[in-house]
Amino acid sequence: MKTVACKDTIFKLLEQDGPFATRDTIHYQPLFSPFSRNQVVSLKKSHLLNRYFITRNQIFEFLDVRSYVEIKNLIDNEDCRKVTRHRAYSLLSRMFGIAGNESECLTAIKNYSRTADGVIRYLKRAVLSPYSSYLDMDNKVDAIYDPVELLLIPFDDRYHKKARFEAKRKLILMQLAAAIEQRERETEIETKFADFLDFLNNYVWSADAKIGEQEPAFLVSRHSPEDFSCCDVAVHTWDRVLEDTEKSFEPGLKRTLIKRLWFHSGNRKIPIYVIVRKKEPVAKVLKLLRKGEENPDIAVADELGLMGVLDRIADVRIFQKHLVESAFRAGSFLIQEDVSDTLEGRFHHNGNAGSSANTPMLKFFARMGGMRVEFIIHTNKSFLNYIYQRGVAHREYEVNRLFDSGVADLLFPKDIYFLDLASIKSNLLHRFRQQIENEQ
User: Fold this and answer.
1) I want to staple 282 with a disulfide (CB 3.0 to 4.6 A). Which of 28, 118, 180, 415 is the partner?
2) 244 & 346 share domain
3) What is the Cα–Cα distance from 381 to 273, expressed in whole angstroms?
4) In this structure, is residue 226 part of a structural domain?
5) Which of 50, 61, 65 is nearest to 20 (CA)?
6) Is residue 418 part of a domain?
7) 294 in a structural domain
8) Closest by alpha carbon to 3, among 404, 294, 285?
9) 177 and 236 fall within a common domain
10) Last residue of some domain: 186, 211, 240?
11) Could you tell me if 236 and 313 lie in one domain?
C-alpha cells in the first residue's frame, strides 16, 4: 500500500481521485443544492467528512470569513485582502513561534515558500529530470509567497485547474516546511551540527591531519554480469590510476574516486571515506511525504548523519570501538541505538517504500554529547553495491521510493500533468541502469 495514502492527513487534500480533487471549474453553490448534497455523500463514503470540516473551519478562520461566498468577495476586494494578509501574518507568527515583528514573519514565510518550490525543483532536476518540462509550475504560483494569496487561488475560477492545484500543493508544502523550521529552532540543529563536526575533527580523525585534508584514491572493481554486484575490489592510489587513464576499461569494470580521511588504532593508520550530512529542509519535506506524516518529530529522526566506508569488515569493528573511545575522550558516554547489521550476510527490511532488503550495511544511531547521530557504515564492497548493483543502487532506490510511496502521484496527478507514472518509473529505472553500467 502506498504510504502517503494510508492516513487521514492534509495530504488527502492533494488526492485527485477523492472529494478534495481540484475540478475544472469552481462551484459556488447554496448549502442545500444538489451539488452540495452529492459532496456530502462523497465525503461520507470516503470517511473524510471530519477532514472536510477541519479544513473548512481552518480556511474560514484564517481568512476571517463565514462562507464560501465571502471568499469570493475577498478575491474581488483588494483592500479586504490587505487587512486579511496582516492578520494572517500575526496568526502564523504565533502558531510557529516566529519571534519578531511582521517583517521577520514575512522573511520566514518567504523561506517556507522557497523550500516548497525547492521540493518541486529538486525532483525536476534530479529523479524526474528527463521529464522536467512536463512538470513546470505556473509562473504566477511560482512567484507568490503570500499564504493568503495562495489560499484564494483554489477558489478563483479565473485560474486554470493546474494553477489552482499547484497553489494548494504549494500551501501544503509550505506548512510542512514551517513545521520543520520550527523543530530545527527548538532542537538547535545548526548548533548540534557544528558540535558534531568539532567532535569528529578534534577526537575521531587523526591529529596529524589538517582539518579538511583528504587522501584521494580509487576503488577499481569488477562487477557480475548477472546483477552488477561487486565481485572484487582493489584500492588504487591516485598516481597509479593516472598512469592508466589511457587504457580503456572492459565491460564490468568500474573506477570510483573516493577522498579519504583516516584515524589510528594502535600503530595502524586506517583510512575511511566519509560523507557527513545535515538533512536539508527539502529532503525533510520529501521524507514527511513518503512517510505520510505531518509531524517532523515522528518522521525525521536522521537529521544528523555520517556515512563511512572502510576497506574491510574488521576495520568497521575497529571504527565502532574507536568511536566509543573518542566520545569518552570528549567527555561523553556513547551508546549505539537501533542497530541493524547486515554486512555479514543477514537480511533486514525496514519497511520503507522502495527500499531493498539486499542492501548490506551497518546502521545505528549514536547518542552522545546531547546529540543523536545516524551512522551508516559500509565496506568498499558493500558501498559499491550501494552505488551500482541492480535493484540496490541508490539512484534506483530514489526512483522506487518516490513512486512506490505514492508521492509522485500525489504531487503530479495524471489528470493534470498527463503523465503515465507507471511507464515513467520503468523508463527512469532503465535510463539510470544504463548510465550506471555504461559510465566509466
Assistant:
1) 118
2) yes
3) 13
4) yes
5) 50
6) no
7) yes
8) 404
9) no
10) 186
11) yes
Residues 159 and 201 in one domain: no
Among 125, 160, 186, identify where a domain stops. 186
- Which H or E run contains 306? strand 304-310
pTM for the whole structure: 0.90
Predicted confidence pLDDT, tens digits, the chain (440 residues): 466 666 778 999 999 988 888 999 886 655 555 656 676 777 777 788 888 889 999 999 999 999 888 998 999 999 999 999 999 999 999 999 888 888 899 999 999 999 999 999 999 999 999 999 999 999 999 999 999 999 999 999 999 999 999 999 999 999 999 999 999 999 898 899 999 999 999 999 999 989 999 999 999 999 999 999 999 999 998 776 666 655 556 788 999 999 999 999 989 999 999 999 888 999 999 999 999 999 988 877 778 899 999 999 999 999 999 999 999 999 999 999 999 999 987 554 555 554 555 678 999 999 998 899 999 999 999 999 999 999 999 999 999 999 999 999 999 999 999 999 999 999 999 999 999 998 76
Give the Cα separation of 158 and 165 in Å (integer). Answer: 13
Q: Could you give phi then psi for residue 310, rounded to 5 degrees?
A: -115, 165
- Which domain covers residue 89, as residue numbers? 10-186
Number of domains in the chain: 2
User: Letter for the amino acid at 81?
Assistant: R
Same domain, 59 and 181: yes
